[in-house]
Design a protein that fits this description.
This protein is mainly β. It contains no helices and 14 strands. The protein has a 4-stranded antiparallel β-sheet with strand order 3-4-5-6, with no helix packed on it. The protein has a 4-stranded antiparallel β-sheet with strand order 7-8-9-10, with no helix packed on it.
């Protein structure tokens, strides 16, 4: 809960302990920014945010979040991490989308969703945020936020509901 490992995805599939985070945490979010991994949120970490520097092999604390959050979806948007939904320290689900700038440490709520979400998955691409699952009444729900028009669109539901799923945007031109 406080360790960072390197795991080889090719033979010999070995793993190596790289670093210990400053705080033990679970249900946190991570996003890659060049050679740094932004680690935010998580039960047990309070409002603390850390960056794991891959080159230096160390974790350093950076400015905290305004309030604790865990179990949220995350997505990288330029130099910021979007934190989507999640729960607060008292276990209440959130409908907020928080923008955390890893260079300045500033964070702010930039949008609210119609429903609170916990355990949702999210991905950002071309001014669009897709949010999948994570509502109490519909784990199949998919919504799209267009940042250019600041509008939400409900997309067709996924076939099977998901909670704490992972998402990734793939550029098919590279295949």
């Amino acid at each position: 809960m406080d360790t960072i490992y390197e795991l080889l995805l090719v033979p010999p599939y070995s793993s190596k302990l790289l670093c210990h985070m400053k705080k033990k945490r679970v249900g946190h979010g991570v996003e890659l920014f060049g050679n740094k991994v932004l680690i935010t949120g998580g039960k047990g970490a309070g409002t603390e945010v850390e960056i794991f520097d891959i080159v230096r092999n160390e974790c350093v604390e950076i400015p905290p979040m305004p309030s604790p959050v865990y179990g949220m979806g995350t997505a990288r948007r330029g130099d910021t991490m979007l934190l989507v939904g999640g729960k607060d320290i008292e276990g209440r689900a959130s409908n907020e989308i928080i923008d955390y700038d890893f260079k300045t440490g500033h964070s702010k709520v930039i949008f609210t969703m119609k429903k609170s979400r916990f355990g949702c998955s999210s991905v950002y691409r071309e001014n669009t945020l897709i949010v999948i699952g994570g509502t109490d009444d519909d784990f199949k729900a998919v919504y799209c936020l267009d940042f250019l028009s600041n509008s939400w669109t409900k997309l067709p539901s996924i076939a099977e509901g998901r909670l704490f799923a992972c998402t990734v945007a793939v550029n098919m031109e590279n295949f």
